[in-house]
Design the sequence.
């Protein structure tokens, strides 16, 4: 094994303590995988309201931070706990006014809240007398730590010359704020081409100052270097292309495993899809049909979708395809949606469900307890995303034996192989999507053996964090080697 590294992991979200999306999942699982490889990982995040008001296993520790700002030193406290099921320490930076609020985000002073957090986290490393070998920051919220280390921090006796890794989970949120934030942090630097006059763009800063940068899939890493995918930062990303990498996210196998998932009525493993074995998926299929109030037929495909109802997810090309599907363009089929989000898409699915009664069901809510039954009981899982940095839904579907039909973009292109583990299409159109779905259903109906092979390969594919963590370990080593 390579040398044990001291890794400071900074994130605005760490599941289960705080999560609004994939960022939280990664914050909760990647550090555990790195720890299992022998690294000394320490996670830091803000003490949000649920921590301040008492979280089981999380206690205040006797450390008082004096965080330097241009208003003088601001005191902050620290709570400590562990990532569940591990010995990975997690520290929560407590500043009552900034973090003890009902929501994680959505406040006018968000850039200041996270600038403060980022600076305080580095101060905590000093207070713990723990100098990290590498600082790993995620998305714009913690990019200020990278900028500070690369500028003001260079003259700090303890924190100078620490290599940094910046992971982009969502380029759409960039953290733009007035230049005053640099005065607040004691940073003197020049403006970037990507920053409007008097503005700081923390996402751009993370990209500009980090020793190494990565996104959550290799294809997304390439896409964001193009004007179409770059959200205004493609030039900067091209400028840093030699330091930009793509590492696929993993699935938390403690959570997503059909053999142990306690949310399923019947557990099963890959043997369930072998010819002649009792189909362990059948029981889940029947439960799914019952819950969806659909006829319990075993002979037609169940097509499913679980998604945030957001324009990113390809819903503009989905409505027409579902209408065709329900009208029998590929033979008889059932369709089940679980999703919530923008009203226009909720209305679209509600209309379709009312029109195609008895053939489809639309559950317009968020239901983490029900989702596994859909993955386990459906035959085909749709993800026609316009863009997708990594995507977890397709990986979960494959692991549960539901065959994905996806648009070959971002992480979808990296995880689903056409005709091998699923079906893909490229052009962002209902026609291309419909054709791919027709192809899938054709195989489902006509070649059961080939279909079972596709299911089997998906179920056996390695989407573990172990694999991803090896990628991150390498990135840390490269970052260290390039500042040494
Ligand atoms: P994103 O992070 O962009 O929403 P991902 O595919 O990476 O997309 O992750 C989506 C995750 O959220 C999956 O685990 C999926 O099962 C879950 N999910 C999405 N919508 C719902 C819902 N309405 N109910 C339950 N789980 C959902």
Sequence:
């Amino acid at each position: 094994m390579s040398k044990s590294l001291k890794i400071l992991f900074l994130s605005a979200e760490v599941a289960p303590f705080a999560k609004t999306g994939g960022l939280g999942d990664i914050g909760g699982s990647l550090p555990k995988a790195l720890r299992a490889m022998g690294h000394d990982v320490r996670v830091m995040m803000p003490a949000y309201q649920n921590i301040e008001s008492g979280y089981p296993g999380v206690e205040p520790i006797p450390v008082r931070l004096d965080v330097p700002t241009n208003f003088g030193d601001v005191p902050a406290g620290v709570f400590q706990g562990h990532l569940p099921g591990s010995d990975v320490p997690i520290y929560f930076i407590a500043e009552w006014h900034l973090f003890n609020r009902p929501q994680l985000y959505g406040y006018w002073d968000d850039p200041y809240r996270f600038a403060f957090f980022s600076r305080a986290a580095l101060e905590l490393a000093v207070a713990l007398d723990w100098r990290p070998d590498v600082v790993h920051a995620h998305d714009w919220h913690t990019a200020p730590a990278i900028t500070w280390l690369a500028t003001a921090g260079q003259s700090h006796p303890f924190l100078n010359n620490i290599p940094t890794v910046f992971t982009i989970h969502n380029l759409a949120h960039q953290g733009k704020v007035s230049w005053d934030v640099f005065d607040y942090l004691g940073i003197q630097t020049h403006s970037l081409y990507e920053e409007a006059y008097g503005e700081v763009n923390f996402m751009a800063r993370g990209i500009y100052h980090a020793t190494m940068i990565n996104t959550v899939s290799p294809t997304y890493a390439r896409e964001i270097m193009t004007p179409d995918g770059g959200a205004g930062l493609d030039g900067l990303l091209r400028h840093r292309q030699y330091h930009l990498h793509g590492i696929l996210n993993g699935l938390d196998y403690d959570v997503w495993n059909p053999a142990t998932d306690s949310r399923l009525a019947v557990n099963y493993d890959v043997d369930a899809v072998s010819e002649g074995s009792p189909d362990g998926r059948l029981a889940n299929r029947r439960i799914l049909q019952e819950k969806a109030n659909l006829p319990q037929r075993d002979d037609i495909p169940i097509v499913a979708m679980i998604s945030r109802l957001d324009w990113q997810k390809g819903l503009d090309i989905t409505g027409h395809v579902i209408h065709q599907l329900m009208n029998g363009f590929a033979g008889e089929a059932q369709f089940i949606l679980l999703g919530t989000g923008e009203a226009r898409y909720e209305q679209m699915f509600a209309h379709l469900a009312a029109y195609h009664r008895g053939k489809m069901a639309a559950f317009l809510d968020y239901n983490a307890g029900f989702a596994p039954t859909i993955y386990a009981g459906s035959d085909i899982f749709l993800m026609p995303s316009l863009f997708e940095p990594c995507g977890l839904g397709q990986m979960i579907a494959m692991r549960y034996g539901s065959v994905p039909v996806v648009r070959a973009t971002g992480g979808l292109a990296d995880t689903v192989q056409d005709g091998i583990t699923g079906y893909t299409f490229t052009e962002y159109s209902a026609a291309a999507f419909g054709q791919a779905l027709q192809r899938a259903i054709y195989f489902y109906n006509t070649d059961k053996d080939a279909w079972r092979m596709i299911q089997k390969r998906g179920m056996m594919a390695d989407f573990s964090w172990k694999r991803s963590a090896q990628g991150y370990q390498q990135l840390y080593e490269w970052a260290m080697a390039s500042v040494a």
Observations:
- Residues 201 and 342 are 27 Å apart (CA to CA).
- The chain has two domains: 6-250+466-483, 270-461.
- The mean pLDDT is 96.
- The first strand starts at residue 6 and ends at 10.
